[in-house]
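In this section we walk through a basic example: taking a raw amino acid sequence and producing a predicted 3D structure, encoded as discrete structure tokens. The instruction is simple. Fold the sequence below.
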Amino acid sequence: MGEISIKITISDRIYPLKVNMEEEEIVRRAAKMINERIKEYQENYAVRDKQDLLSMAVLHYATGVLKAENKVQAQDTAVADKVGELDSLLTDFFSK
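The resulting token sequence is shown next.
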């Protein structure tokens, strides 16, 4: 599908974006999550500077992405190990 123009507000700043129609909801949800995280940090910590709050939110989400990537990589390794075991068992079975 085509691109559409949208405006996203993050930390009281408006960002005009062009996104694929299929991605619009995801982008809006991401902006909402970022704003909620910023608000949470603002309420729970003595940080008032918007740049610091935004940096803390970015660090939170980047850490989450890296954890998810590590988990997927570990799962891929485990699956590859199991496939190797099955291949070995089948090779042994058919070679008898």
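Looking at the output, two observations stand out. The first helix runs from residue 24 to 44. Strands lie at 3-10, 13-20. In the next section we compare this with other chains.
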